């Protein structure tokens, strides 16, 4: 146990509850867990300022966006792959030894744990995230940014893109979207433009998204419910961010008091973290 | 009741213009074409017609419907409807409230790039974008070839560009003014393949600080290059050799356009009859700004006349031209420019003249027949330095120019007279113009200063054949030096959102010295030399008022000036001081009825006084048989001018139309009397009140027919001049009428060929008594037929038909033919041209000057061929 915690803290990642006797995963099964089929898949490089002290450290993640007819799913590509592996392992009845899998690198964890379903349930978003070891899930109303379209154009990945600006979730954003890809989609919670958003940056340079790949899906590619964890905590957006703030302000104290993980490892004082989620409240 | 319709019509226009601030609602439904079922969440984008700007967007609802308001500013919109899994549809439509239906076809390819065929002309606010690819034909080589074909744009013989009847006021390459008023260097050299768009910016005011204050009726042209023709240098290398006589042509051209700097360098040499010096023509830019004219030459050499004929038929030349132009964008608003030009031009011409001078109401005629063999040598060198700082708050420009022009001309004349003349007519000048405008909020302060010093040490020698004449050779030295300065400061205040006053104080000084001296004249009673100094000072105060509304603009100015003139004649030992108060009020109104129609009216009164030649009481020889004498009386001119202009431009339908009417009566106190003594004539000014009335109408229409790929341009003009002429002591009233019809058609017949036609009819009528009147026609027709028989091959057939009346019962018909064949590779071109295949040898025409007629015959270039090769990068 000590060993596991050490690894988790070291990577600053969490991967679910780790009580061995609990049924760990509920793998999605077709077709019940298929929410939609993707038409376009994209990869984005997401970069968020995570520490101003260590020379403006940016946390970079490769994010994966599956765009279906009605629903889209946005999550870390590494987590997506891990999810697939876990689902596969569960389906095959393989004995899942998470510790081993992480240790030998079979299961990897991304640096951003967001799991975002847009328009699921209808007219709402479902957001999943984690703080340390705990998974949270909440629903929120879809908020479409109020876009201002500008004249400027650039070419990104061979697509002619138009500039648009907005103030959204506490930040001023400039995005570039391509009307040649007629889906009102984008990375993270960005939506509402007449074309796919391929580049996003805020005015402070703290948050950027850059599309690195667009794939045209010609086969049946399901958008699955993620590997669900029965211990996932249902919450609200506000409560989730309150928790996150608490964790960042005092990570050690938070782990001690709020998580359901009991650790036998010697207590270590973790330094305060910078609270800078993509979404800010005004 | 019938009379109501014009008003309704007008009301319609007014309503249309009011509506233009409103919003239009575009509604529609999007359905699957096969299933006829509604398509929800389809993306509907409303764009400007150039696809540069998204005006609005909407997604269809569950019934596949959408509705969107858009401002009515653009005259048409592109509607793009797309949905994943369906082929994107785009529709260009007039910007008005309307109901639309889109049937989308399911398609396999989801991420397909949408390409909409760019329209040939599109309008965006005040800018028209002409898509060069749409107007270009395979035979066009330089951007000037395409400019001629753009509807609404006219290119004069001199290379000067007009847009809808008014000359352009700036010529930009990628937004930067590299060449100033010598823009023919660009139009004749920039390869058409390098240009993506020609933009016409209407009502262009280049001074940013004055943008919403001083309105301009004129437009500017901006050449947009293709993206891959910027940053790296582009250029052409051409050479050609031919016979008969030995012909050569070499042309090196390179241009570099980057966001920070531009350079254009060219060297050319030829003797094929191409007029290279024309590329250095300084085209007038600001029609409302009166720049002082350069002093004219002191002699009237027969110089070089332009004929309504392709220049390479009659121009016998040997020319070198070098031009270097550099521009650096020092910062966002600051630009530094240098232009260096040098040209050497040698021309020869053989002219047969038949000049008839009519006396005593045409009862007796003096006929002079002569053959004039001329040779001109011109050296032109110019350096221009220009610094501009053009920002919203202020404008600073300093332009310095150093120029030298050495012109010598030798002519040898046989026939009625046997003489030779040598002219030496250099002109040097140095000028600097400083312009500063400061804007603080709504207040504008402006200072300008212009200084020019010019010097003309000229010389004319006439050699008389000693076997025929007893008189000695005549030599005249003449020198004129002029120092001219014009300084002005002006303030402008806005007193409400639409009205503004300007107060302008101006000081002009014109200090001139005129010296002429002759060794001998055939008229013993005349004074042989002149030595006159004239110092003239003008003090001007000019208040003006402007009113600017969105559609209506008015300005009225009332300059009051006081001219102070000191004349010192060193030979007669006379000193005189004159002063005159002069007023020159002017009014101009312009009204924009709608997006399409515009009209302008202007009226003015000018009060002017003459120049230093009025005081040159000694005789001045202008050529071997013509002399001029001043009267010692100053000329006073009072003129009025009225002009009206109506312009129509519909960019969507590519239809342009303009009418210009003008009337200009002038009254003067002096009239020249021309007397013939022996073989000489003398013009002497006499104090006779006389009047000259000029009336003119000019109509021009241009239309591009998209489906026929044809551009049609039609022009007509008529002018009538009434004046009095005095010859051999008889006062003769003269009426001169000139009517011109012009048509141009340029059409693409398909991938295999094209056709171009130019037709010109000039009718001139001259009446100088109740009975004596002459009417002469001049017809020029040009056909060019291009065939592209195979890929890369091009055949050109050209015919030129002329029919000129030499007199009322004699006319001269001519037909010229040319053949050319061209083989084109991606960056190489080989061509072979056989010009003047019918070997026409001479050209003749007749012109009038009042009661006198001049019939002239020119020698033409014989049949010749030219093999050329060109390479571009």
Structure description:
Mean pLDDT of chain A is 78; it is low at 1-25. Chain A has 282 residues and is α+β, with helices and mostly antiparallel strands. Chain A has a single domain (2-256), classed as Clam (outer membrane lipoprotein receptor (LolB), chain A). The termini of chain A are far apart. Chain A is built from 5 helices and 13 strands. In chain A, helix 4 packs across helix 5 (251-258). Chain A has helices spanning 2-11, 77-91, 98-103, 237-249, 251-258, and strands at 34-51, 57-68, 72-76, 115-118, 124-131, 134-141, 148-156, 159-168, 171-178, 196-202, 207-216, 222-224, 233-234. By secondary structure, chain B is mostly beta strands. Helix content of chain B is 4%, strand content 64%. Chain B contains 5 helices and 48 strands. Chain B has a 33-stranded mixed beta sheet that branches. In chain B, strands 8-9-14-15-13 form a 5-stranded mixed beta sheet. In chain B, strands 3-2-5-6 form a 4-stranded antiparallel beta sheet, with no helix packed on it. In chain B, strand 22 (394-415) and strand 23 (419-424) form a beta hairpin. The longest helix of chain B is centred in the N-terminal third of the chain and has 16 residues, at 4-19. Chain B is globular and about 105 Å long. Classes of the chains: A alpha+beta (282), B mainly beta (873).
Which helices and strands, and how do they pair?
The complex is a heterodimer of chains A (282) and B (873).
Chain A: H1 2-11, E1 34-51, E2 57-68, E3 72-76, H2 77-91, H3 98-103, E4 115-118, E5 124-131, E6 134-141, E7 148-156, E8 159-168, E9 171-178, E10 196-202, E11 207-216, E12 222-224, E13 233-234, H4 237-249, H5 251-258
Parallel strand pairs in A: 6-13
Antiparallel strand pairs in A: 1-2, 1-11, 1-12, 2-3, 3-4, 4-5, 5-6, 7-8, 8-9, 9-10, 10-11
Helix pairs in contact in A: 4-5
Chain B: H1 4-19, E1 23-32, E2 43-48, E3 54-59, E4 65-71, E5 76-82, E6 89-94, E7 98-104, E8 121-124, E9 127-131, H2 132-135, H3 143-147, E10 153-155, E11 161-163, E12 166-167, E13 170-173, H4 184-187, E14 195-201, E15 220-225, E16 234-243, E17 247-257, E18 261-270, H5 311-314, E19 316-329, E20 334-359, E21 364-390, E22 394-415, E23 419-424, E24 427-440, E25 443-464, E26 474-494, E27 499-518, E28 529-548, E29 552-557, E30 560-569, E31 574-583, E32 586-592, E33 597-609, E34 619-623, E35 626-629, E36 636-650, E37 655-677, E38 680-705, E39 710-727, E40 730-750, E41 753-767, E42 773-787, E43 793-807, E44 810-824, E45 828-835, E46 842-849, E47 852-859, E48 864-872
Parallel strand pairs in B: 1-7, 13-15, 35-38, 37-39
Antiparallel strand pairs in B: 1-4, 2-3, 2-5, 5-6, 8-9, 9-14, 10-11, 11-12, 14-15, 16-17, 16-48, 17-18, 18-19, 19-20, 20-21, 20-47, 21-22, 22-23, 22-24, 23-25, 24-25, 25-26, 26-27, 27-28, 28-29, 28-30, 29-32, 30-31, 32-33, 33-36, 34-35, 36-37, 37-38, 38-39, 39-40, 40-41, 41-42, 42-43, 43-44, 44-45, ...
């Amino acid at each position: 146990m000590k060993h596991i915690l050490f690894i988790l803290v070291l990577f600053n990642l969490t991967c679910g509850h780790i009580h061995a006797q609990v049924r760990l995963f509920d793998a999605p099964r077709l077709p019940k867990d298929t929410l939609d089929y993707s038409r376009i898949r994209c990869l984005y490089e997401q970069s968020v300022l995570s520490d101003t002290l260590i020379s403006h450290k940016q946390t970079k993640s490769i994010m994966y966006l599956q765009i279906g007819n009605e629903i889209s799913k946005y999550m870390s590509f590494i987590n997506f792959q891990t999810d697939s592996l876990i689902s596969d392992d569960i389906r095959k009845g393989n004995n899942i030894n998470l510790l081993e899998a992480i240790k030998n690198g079979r299961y990897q964890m991304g640096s951003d744990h967001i799991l975002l379903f847009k328009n699921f349930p209808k007219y709402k978003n479902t957001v999943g995230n984690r703080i340390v070891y705990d998974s949270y899930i909440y629903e929120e109303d879809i908020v479409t940014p109020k876009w201002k379209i500008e004249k400027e154009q650039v070419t990104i990945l061979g697509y002619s893109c138009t500039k648009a600006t907005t103030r959204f979730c506490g930040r001023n954003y400039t995005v570039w979207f391509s009307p040649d890809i007629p889906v009102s989609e984008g990375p993270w919670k960005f939506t509402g433009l007449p074309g796919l958003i391929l580049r996003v940056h805020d005015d402070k340079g703290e948050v950027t998204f850059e599309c690195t790949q667009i794939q045209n899906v010609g086969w049946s590619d399901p958008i699955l419910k993620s590997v669900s964890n029965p211990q996932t905590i249902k919450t609200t957006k506000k409560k989730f961010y309150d928790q996150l703030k608490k964790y960042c302000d005092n990570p050690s104290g938070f782990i001690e008091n709020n998580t359901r993980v009991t650790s036998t490892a010697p207590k270590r004082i973790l330094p305060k973290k910078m609270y800078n989620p993509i979404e800010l409240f005004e | 009741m019938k009379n109501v319709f014009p008003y309704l019509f007008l009301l319609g226009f007014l309503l249309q213009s009011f509506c233009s601030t409103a919003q239009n609602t575009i509604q529609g439904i999007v359905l699957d074409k096969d299933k006829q079922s509604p398509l929800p969440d389809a993306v509907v984008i409303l764009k400007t017609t150039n696809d540069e700007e998204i005006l609005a967007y909407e997604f269809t609802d569950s019934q596949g419907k959408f509705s969107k308001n858009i401002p009515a500013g653009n005259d048409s919109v592109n509607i793009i409807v797309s949905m994943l899994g369906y082929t994107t549809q785009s529709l260009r439509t007039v910007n008005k409230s309307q109901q639309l239906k889109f049937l989308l076809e399911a398609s396999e390819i989801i991420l397909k790039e949408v390409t909409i065929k760019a329209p040939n002309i599109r309008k965006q606010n005040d800018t028209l974008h002409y898509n060069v690819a749409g107007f270009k034909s395979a035979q066009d080589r330089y951007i000037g070839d395409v400019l001629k074909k753009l509807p609404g744009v006219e290119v004069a013989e001199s290379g000067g560009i007009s847009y809808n009847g008014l000359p352009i006021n700036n010529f930009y390459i990628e937004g930067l003014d590299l060449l100033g008023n010598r823009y023919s260097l660009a139009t004749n050299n920039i390869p058409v393949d390098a240009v993506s768009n020609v933009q016409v910016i209407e009502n262009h005011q280049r001074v940013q600080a004055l943008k919403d204050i001083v309105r301009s009726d004129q437009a500017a042209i901006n050449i947009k290059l293709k993206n891959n023709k910027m940053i790296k240098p582009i250029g052409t290398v051409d050479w050609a050799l031919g016979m008969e006589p030995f012909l050569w042509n070499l042309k090196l051209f390179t241009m570099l356009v980057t966001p920070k700097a531009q350079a254009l360098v060219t060297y050319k040499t030829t003797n094929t009859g191409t007029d290279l010096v024309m590329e250095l023509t300084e085209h007038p830019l600001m029609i409302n700004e009166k720049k002082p004219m350069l002093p004219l030459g002191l002699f009237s050499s027969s110089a070089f006349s332009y004929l309504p004929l392709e220049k390479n038929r009659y121009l016998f030349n040997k020319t070198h031209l070098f031009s270097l132009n550099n521009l650096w964008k020092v910062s966002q608003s600051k630009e530094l420019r240098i232009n260096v030009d040098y040209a050497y031009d040698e021309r020869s011409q053989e002219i047969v003249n038949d000049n008839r001078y009519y006396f005593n109401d045409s009862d007796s005629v003096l006929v002079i027949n002569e053959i004039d063999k001329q040779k001109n040598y011109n050296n032109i060198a110019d350096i221009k330095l220009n610094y501009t700082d053009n920002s919203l708050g202020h404008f600073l420009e300093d332009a310095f120019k150093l120029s030298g022009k050495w012109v010598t001309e030798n002519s040898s004349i046989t026939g009625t007279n046997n003489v030779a003349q040598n002219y030496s007519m250099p002109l040097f000048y140095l000028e600097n113009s400083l312009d500063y405008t400061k804007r603080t909020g709504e207040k504008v302060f402006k200072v300008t200063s212009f200084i020019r010093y010019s010097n003309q040490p000229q010389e004319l020698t006439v050699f008389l054949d000693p076997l025929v004449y007893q008189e000695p050779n005549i030599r005249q030295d003449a020198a004129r030096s002029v120092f001219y300065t014009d300084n002005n400061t002006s303030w402008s205040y806005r007193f409400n959102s639409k009205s503004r006053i300007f107060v302008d104080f101006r000081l002009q000084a014109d200090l001139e010295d005129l010296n002429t001296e002759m060794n001998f004249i055939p008229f013993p009673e005349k004074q042989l030399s002149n030595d006159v100094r004239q110092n003239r000072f003008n003090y001007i105060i000019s208040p003006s008022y402007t009113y600017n509304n969105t559609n209506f603009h008015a300005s009225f100015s009332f300059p009051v000036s006081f001219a102070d003139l000191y004349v010192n004649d060193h030979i007669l030992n006379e000193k005189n001081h004159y002063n005159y108060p002069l007023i020159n009020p002017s009014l101009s109104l312009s009204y924009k009825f709608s997006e399409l129609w515009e009209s302008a009216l202007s009226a003015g009164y000018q009060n002017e006084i003459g120049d230093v030649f009025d005081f040159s009481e000694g005789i001045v020889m202008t050529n071997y048989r013509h002399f001029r004498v001043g009267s010692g009386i100053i000329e006073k001119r009072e003129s009025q001018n009225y002009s009206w202009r109506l312009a129509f431009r519909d960019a969507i339908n590519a239809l342009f139309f303009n009418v210009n009417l003008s009337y200009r009566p002038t009254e003067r106190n002096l009239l020249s009397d021309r007397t013939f003594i022996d073989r000489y004539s003398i013009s002497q000014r006499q104090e006779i009140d006389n009047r000259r009335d000029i009336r003119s109408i000019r109509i021009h229409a241009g239309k591009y027919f998209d489906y026929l790929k044809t551009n049609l341009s039609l022009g007509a003009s008529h002018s009538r001049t009434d004046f009095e002429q005095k010859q051999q002591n008889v006062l003769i009233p003269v009426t001169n009428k000139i009517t011109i019809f012009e048509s141009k058609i340029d059409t693409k017949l398909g991938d295999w060929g094209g056709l171009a036609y130019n037709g010109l009819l000039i009718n001139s009528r001259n009446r100088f008594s109740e009975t004596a009147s002459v009417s002469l026609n001049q017809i020029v027709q040009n056909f060019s037929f291009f065939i592209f028989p195979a890929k890369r091959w091009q055949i050109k057939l050209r015919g030129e038909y002329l029919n000129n009346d030499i007199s009322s019962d004699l006319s001269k018909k001519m037909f010229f033919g040319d053949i050319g064949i061209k083989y084109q590779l991606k960056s190489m071109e080989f061509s072979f041209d056989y010009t003047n295949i019918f070997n026409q040898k001479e050209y003749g025409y007749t012109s009038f000057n009042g009661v006198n007629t001049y019939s002239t015959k020119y020698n033409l270039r014989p049949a010749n061929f030219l093999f050329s090769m060109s390479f571009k990068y």
